[in-house]
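Aim 2 progress update. The chain analyzed this quarter is reproduced below.
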Amino acid sequence: MTEFTIVIEDAGINFAAYAPDVPGCIATGATVEEVTVTLREAIAEHLEILREMGEEIPIPHSRAGVIQIAS
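Predicted structure tokens:
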């Protein structure tokens, strides 16, 4: 099983998500849970299409973290 880092953004009326290591693969959803499920499905489908086309599968290399800044 491969793990991809995803970024979820609050777009105000919904949530948007993308995987930095899978260019062009994005998703939206009404909730964080929905956008996560939708992006998981989109990535799986995207990778399957790449395999069918004989293209290379992206190797995950991105990481995410949180930092605190005094305000």
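The longest strand covers residues 7-10. Strands lie at 7-10, 15-18, 26-29. These observations will guide the mutagenesis experiments scheduled for the next reporting period.
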